[in-house]
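Possible regression after last week's pipeline update?

I re-ran a chain I had predicted before the update to compare outputs. Posting the input and the new output here so someone can diff against the archived version. Not blocking, just want to make sure nothing changed silently.
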Amino acid sequence: MDNQIGEEFKRLRKERKMTLRELSDRSGLSVSFLSQVERGISTITFTSLRKIAEALGVSVNFFFEPEKDSPIKKRTLKKSADQPNFTYTSLMGDLDQPQFTPARIELKAGESHTAPYSHQGEEFVYVLEGELKVMLEGHEETLYPHESLHIDSTKEHTWYNETDKPVVLLVVSTNGND
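New output (post-update):
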């Protein structure tokens, strides 16, 4: 895994004087998994990264470096063999207090299903390519290209790619604190 994400979330966790146990309780992820991610010895799914970001009180965008020398403010996770689960590209502009977070997300082939969870805000997911499995309050559905989902994120949900091809999504979310 790109050590950058693990190091950054460890720095942020310590800055907030939070133990791994407290982060585990807030995110629903195990202490051992969080420790492995911090040390760069475990890969992370987008869903897990989002749970960590929410538990730390930041947007998922926080973990991605802005591109240099570009008038367009975008952040991207560099693709690497050590980060096989997803690619995240922020599509946010240069706003001080944005009302929503737009992103392009590519879920690699075979991303594993994670337990449904809920969080504050809303999510809009638009499938650009591939097939996305969605679980919403115990109901499972497959979204295909040009299909979308707009939900209240406080309802238990998860989405993932169980196919052998990548899924490319446009995701717009709010954090519910506005």
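Follow-up from reviewer: compared with the archived run. Helices lie at 3-15, 20-27, 31-38, 46-56. Marking as no regression found.
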